[in-house]
Amino acid sequence: MSNELISKKDLLDLTGISYGQLYRWKRKDLIPEEWFIRKSTFTGQETFFPKEKVLERIDKIQSMKETLSLDELAERLSPSSSAMMELSRKELLKRNIVTNVSLELYAKENGTAEEFQFEQLLELFILDKLLSSGDISLDEGRMILQVLQEGRGRLNKSKHELLLIRKLGVTSCLLVAGAENIMVDQGSRVTVMLSVESCIEELKTNL
Amino acid sequence: MKNGMKGNLILNGYGSSNGGHFNEVKLNGRGIVNGDLECVLFECNGSGTVKGDLKIDRGKISGSGKIKGGVNGNDFTIEGHGSVSEGVSLVNKMNISGSGKIGGSLRADEIKIKGKATIATDCETESFQTEGQFAIGGLLSADHIDVKLYGESSALEIGGQTIKIKGKKRGFFHLFKPFFPAKLTADVIEGDELELESTNAKIVRGKNVTIGPECEIDLVEYKESIHLDDAAKVREFRKI
User: Fold this and answer.
1) Inter-chain residue contact A20 with B206, CB threshold 8 Å
2) What ipTM, to 2 d.p.?
3) Domains annotated on chain A, with CATH
4) Can you give the pTM of this predicted structure?
5) Across the interface, which of A13, A20, A45 has its CB nearest the CB of B192?
6) B73-82, pLDDT tens digit by residue?
7) Interface check B218 vs A, CB under 8 A
8) Which residues contact B105 (CB under 8 A, 6 or more apart)?
């Protein structure tokens, strides 16, 4: 994801929203506080936003606000509110949320379950996402599950990043909270870098 | 909040309690609650102290109450001299008439201030109405901001849809310089419809901007229209 910033002025121009809307959405936590980046410019202080993220978010809000109230939207978009969601195994497959392969792997590790809580769903969802992208092997999938389960309960409280690093054919899996820049030595390669927050969001829109 | 079986806590004169869950809590005199308090109705007349968080349906401090924690609930009123050392988060309405001090942020659907309010960080609401003074250490964000200035007020930033700041009417006495000037100071003011008087700001940005008398503004950026009063000092303005 690029680190390009957009000023508040340009953002309002580009999206056609008003100051009133922007502040209202911020109050409702539809646009997270961390995205408001204050910088001083030659004309005084200005607020900037991560361009790609904020444009995508505003687009999402605008397309959904016709059908949902702002509070429902906040529920949907904020990662800290994982509403009581439970889905059965059949439902998951029927609605194409995850594939059978990942379900089987998950069952092998955790025993077969018919109902899945949100946290389990999230683990399953991340596993499936990576497996179907072809970035990881089944063994690495197992490792990821293990790490995610260690972090269970903390995942939606702060921003986490899931990393997979390979060196000389050996893989390590890391779950990092609040990581901005991660450097690795030359021999290592970061094969996967996934924001758990965006996965939660994606999963919620799928449910 | 369920209140079927809960009792009341009434402290008259000197007294202390360790907190807990109640239906009604009244601190008349110098009551002290050492701990978190959860109740439907909270009243503090006199100089009561709650050393913990307060969770209420409705609450009122008339006298000089201190909450050494945060406040959560529906409605909260400070009449007299009240202080809350952490944030206040309300579903409905915050009323401050007298002097209120909040050591964290204030969130409510509606905020009315008559008197003086100090808020350490952000103040977020749908409707913000004041007649009096306020000092906000962070962002004041509201759909509708309606301020009648008495004395000096300040906020770091102000943002919202409609923002109206009215200076003091001085009538006959406008010949003399007022002893306590009515003034609002902010770094940045941003909104769609802005009507400002007696305001000092570095930057004002808006769609339709009216700058009234006694304003001193370094830079105004407007989208559609601007109206400058003759008595306003605006260093620079431009259409964006």
Assistant:
1) no
2) 0.82
3) 5-77 (1.10.1660.10), 86-199 (no CATH)
4) 0.73
5) A20
6) 999 999 989 9
7) yes
8) B87, B88, B89, B119, B120, B121, B122, B123, B124, B138
